[in-house]
Design brief:
The protein is of the alpha+beta class and 433 residues long. It has a single domain, classed as ATP adenylyltransferase (HIT family, subunit A, 2-Layer Sandwich), CATH 3.30.428.70. 24% of the residues lie in helices and 22% in strands. It contains eleven helices and 19 strands. The longest helix has 17 residues. The N and C termini lie far apart (48 Å). The relative contact order is 0.16. The structure holds zinc ion. It is found in: Cytoplasm. Pfam families: GDPGP1_C (PF26216), GDPGP1_N (PF26217).
């Protein structure tokens, strides 16, 4: 069955628009300061190399000795603010109205009318999670150097390293952190693993580990990374993760969970309870890589079975939510309520996590926990389908008999987090800046 629907992708780079070449800057190469062979030899970008093996012992050792730069506060947010000063964003996200919706979960609503202006309709195939990279479509090799904040890689000598002005070594497959020019929050960036390899939007073990390491380096529970597969509202088929800083707990992080499996290597898998979208929670692991491999293998299983999904990396990389979804499929089959469609909200990873980015003033004014719940309930697989998908996942990660699946009902934990902060007067509207 071929399902095609008209989609309106958000512009994530200033070079995504047709004919956006800015020739006003006379520099070397083609004059655009681009990421192609004409301009790259002159490129100098900060390079942050993280310490690769991270377990409890290493973390303890890391305490001694100052890191060369504060990853989140100085490097990432510092460079991001620099790009804001330079006017590279399409609108001022810090001026967008935001409020916590009254209720048990504290859904966060943002009114973002600017994000979807200047629409460029594109045919986007929603029925295939894996599609080959298409050189002719927008991809991140087409952004300008000024949109790139820094290069991010594993250190080769076991120490954190920082170089403020490093050349770009294309042969060494650099990964970039770049701004999203249509940010939905403060510090909204894209992590583009091995950018010049032009990988399609598809999870692999190495790239997921890189994303998890970024959360570990940021070392702040309010800095999360997210991933949308094709068919689950990714708009660009070039491998990327998103990330931003929002100093509020996400509703999904507050939902109770029930442990369903323990794996060798210390990874624990739970099911989300009392949340509108059914999903799995992965935690623990003796090393970052243990956790990363289990989640990656689960994602790869979903990809191979053509099941769209979203991933949220929380709690400094210690907790990962995996949410298979079926909204686009229902949408294409005409099974989504017209009232929900009218809001034009695309339930991607942030919305599913409880940060609702709304395009219409009316929806913002009328935002309620009930409305958020109704939308997200449409995203979720049915209980029956969810259990089928879980069986596929457990089959895929159970190489040998290292999975202990827990069928008992007594493993309910009330909340996953100790870092959840109670929002002062959560009945109030919080307006950022
Ligand atoms: Zn150039």
């Amino acid at each position: 069955m071929m399902l095609k629907i008209k989609r309106v992708p958000t512009v994530v780079s200033n070079y995504q628009k047709d004919g956006a070449a800015d020739t006003s800057r006379p520099v070397g190469g083609c004059g655009r300061n681009c990421l192609k062979a004409c301009c790259l030899p002159d490129a100098k970008l900060p390079l942050y190399a993280f310490k690769k093996v991270v377990n409890e012992k290493d973390l303890a050792l890391q305490e001694c000795g100052e890191p060369p730069v504060a990853f989140l506060d100085s490097l990432l947010l510092g460079e991001w603010e620099d790009r804001m000063q330079k006017g590279l964003f399409r609108y001022d996200v810090t001026a967008c109205e935001t409020k916590v919706i009254p209720g048990e979960y504290g859904f966060v609503a943002q009114l973002n009318e600017g994000r979807h202006l200047k629409k460029r309709p594109t045919e986007f195939r929603v029925d295939k999670v894996l599609q080959p990279f298409d050189e002719s479509k927008f991809n991140f090799t087409k952004v300008g150097q000024e949109e790139v904040l820094f290069q991010f890689e594993a250190s080769d000598d076991g120490q954190i390293q920082f170089f403020p002005n490093a050349p770009v070594d294309v042969d060494n497959s650099p990964s970039f952190v770049a701004i999203n020019v249509s940010p939905i929050e403060y510090g909204h960036v894209l992590l583009i693993p091995r950018i010049f390899e032009c990988l399609p939007q598809r999870i692999d073990r190495e790239s997921f580990l890189l994303a998890l390491h970024m959360a570990v380096e940021a070392d702040n529970p309010y800095f999360r990374l997210g991933y949308n597969s094709l068919g689950a509202f990714a708009t660009i088929n070039h491998l990327h993760f998103q990330a931003y800083y929002l100093a509020l707990p996400f509703p999904i992080e507050k939902a109770p969970t029930k442990k369903i499996a323990n794996l060798n290597g210390g990874v624990k898998i739970s099911e989300l309870l009392k949340y509108p979208v059914r999903g799995l929670v992965f935690e623990g692991g003796d090393t970052v890589e243990d956790l990363s491999n289990v989640v990656s293998d689960a994602c790869i299983c979903l990809q191979n079975n053509n099941i769209p999904f979203n991933v949220l990396i929380s709690d400094c990389g210690k907790q990962v939510f995996l949410l298979p979804q079926c909204y686009a499929e229902k949408q294409a089959l005409g099974e989504v309520d017209a009232e929900l469609l009218d809001t034009q909200v695309n339930p991607a990873v942030w919305e599913i996590s409880g940060h609702m980015v709304l395009k219409r003033k009316k929806d913002y004014d009328e935002a309620s926990e009930g409305n958020a719940w109704r939308l997200l309930a449409e995203v979720s697989l049915s209980e029956e389908r969810f259990q089928e998908v879980n069986d596929l996942i457990f089959e895929a990660i159970d190489c040998g008999d290292n999975v202990q699946r827990d069928k008992e009902e007594d493993a309910v934990s009330s909340s996953a987090h100790s870092t959840v902060v109670v929002v002062a007067g959560s009945q109030e509207c919080v307006v950022l800046q």
